[in-house]
Automatic annotation (TrEMBL):
This is Magnesium and cobalt efflux protein CorC. It holds the Pfam family CorC_HlyC. It is found in: Cell membrane. Keywords: CBS domain, Cell membrane, Membrane, Repeat, Transmembrane, Transmembrane helix. It comes from Zoogloea oryzae. PANTHER family: HEMOLYSIN-RELATED, UPF0053 INNER MEMBRANE PROTEIN YFJD. InterPro entries: CBS_dom, CBS_dom_sf, CNNM, FAD-bd_PCMH-like_sf, FAD-bd_PCMH_sub2, Ion_transp-like_CBS, Transptr-assoc_dom. Residues 2-201 form the CNNM transmembrane domain. Belongs to the UPF0053 family. The keyword Endoplasmic reticulum does not apply.
Length: 426
């Protein structure tokens, strides 16, 4: 080493520190890179991204080649700093101590911390570039890395750890995917983000959460006089109506209102004519997940189903549009609904029908009412009060003040919700 000029030794030291910094940066960049972005770039034709994914699929060999060179370079740097220090200041003990401190500082600042910060902040871009030299080094020194990894694999077996456990660590659960969508920021438009989040929630809600309650179903009673039925059909909002005989649980079929038009043009309508136009009713258990029901509608070519409980009692009605609205929001072409009037007044309150679904109230008014029990506001209040309240009774649920405005026929008809303690709509 004495034959090599001090300036050349200093240049070699700088080169060694630069190499060490490169391998430190490469290690951090490869480990911090987003595999899904790399896969997207690879699908678009990026060769660097494909090489990076190939390296990440063999993490043990990737780390082996990086750490092999990093440790060799660091050891060479430490030795060279000691040689330069001895040449300048002699071989006394304090000189060796100073050289140790100096090489530690140089490696920490220039070969470890700074490169790793850069690698972490620009991981996806750097991973595509560093994959080229790393792939070449791995191919040229594959045997050395393989030999070292034999001992690594043996040690992992002794510790009862799987060397391939990292493969499963990069698979995402539904909740993790949901959080990625929520934190996507400007990458996904707000409307698209809302649809994706609603799609994840379809597995957690049932048709009972989105159905129209029995009390709001527009239906035809075949036992009524024909002029009453005709008046009902002339003013109905829907093209398909359930038809029952006497009482709601006795549904005998589904009537397509358009079929009535041709019949009424030819001659007068009769109950027998209506019975002849009915299609078979389609019944759905209340506990059916909404996502499964969407598939059932598609497979059975149905658009409307009657929701029943475990005893066969009619609970409500759900349509294909109800499920789609859970994904993309309310249709402007829907029939008039009390939910359309859900807006805060100037005094910070809103009058709400007791039959409103809690999920819809939470979405429209920015509330946080519990939805793991009763599905409607009426059910929530009755469960909370354990009695049918009189007008004027006030309660606070989930920090939201609620006042009963009108109660009749064993149910709460109207309530007033106050905004003061409620969460504001986003």
């Amino acid at each position: 080493m004495d034959a090599i000029p001090l300036s050349a030794q200093s240049a070699i030291l700088v080169a060694l520190l630069a190499l060490s910094g490169f391998f430190s940066m490469a290690e951090t960049a490869m480990m911090a890179a987003n595999r899904y972005r790399l896969r997207s770039a690879a699908n678009q034709g990026s060769r660097g991204a494909r090489l990076a994914l190939d390296l990440l699929d063999q993490t043990d060999k990737l780390l082996g080649i990086i750490l092999l060179f990093n440790n060799l370079v660091n050891a060479a740097s430490a030795t060279l700093v000691s040689v330069i220090t001895i040449q300048l200041f002699g071989s006394e003990e304090w000189v060796l101590g100073v050289s140790t401190l100096a090489v530690t500082f140089l490696i920490l600042v220039f070969a470890e911390i700074t490169p790793k910060v850069i690698g972490a902040n620009h991981a996806n871009r750097l991973a595509c570039f560093v994959s080229y030299p790393l792939s070449g080094l791995l191919k040229s020194l594959y045997f050395v890395v393989w030999f070292v990894n034999l001992f690594v694999a043996g040690l992992l077996r002794l510790l009862r750890l799987s060397p391939n456990a990292s493969q499963d660590a990069h698979s995402l659960s539904t909740e993790e995917l949901r959080m990625m969508v929520l934190e996507s920021g400007a990458f996904i438009p707000p409307k698209h983000r809302s649809i994706l989040v609603n799609l994840f929630e379809l597995e957690d809600i049932t048709v009972e959460d989105v159905m129209m309650p029995r009390s709001q179903i527009e239906a035809v009673n075949i036992a009524e006089p024909i002029d009453v039925i005709q008046g009902h059909l002339a003013t109905c909002y829907h093209t398909r109506l359930p038809v029952f005989d006497g009482e709601m649980n006795a549904v005998i079929g589904i009537l397509h209102v358009r079929r009535i038009l041709g019949q009424t043009l030819d001659h007068s309508l009769s109950a027998a004519d209506i019975r002849g136009m009915l299609s078979k009713p389609y019944f759905i258990p209340a506990s059916t997940p909404v996502y499964s029901q969407l598939q059932f509608f598609q497979e059975n070519r149905e658009r409307l189903g009657l929701v029943v409980d475990e005893y066969g009692e009619l609970l409500g009605l759900v349509t294909l549009e109800d499920i789609i609205e859970e994904l993309i929001g309310k249709f402007t072409t829907s029939a008039p609904d009390a939910a359309d009037k859900l807006t805060w007044r100037e005094d910070g309150s809103v009058i709400v029908d007791g039959s409103q679904h809690l999920r819809n109230l939470n979405r429209r008014l920015g509330l946080n009412l519990p939805v793991d029990g009763p599905k409607t506001l009426n059910g929530l209040l009755l469960e909370h009060l354990q009695d049918i309240p009189e007008a004027g009774v006030s309660v606070k649920i989930a920090g939201i003040p609620i006042e009963v405005v009108q109660a009749e026929d064993r149910r709460i008809k109207n309530v007033r919700i106050f905004r003061s303690a409620a969460k504001k709509s986003p």
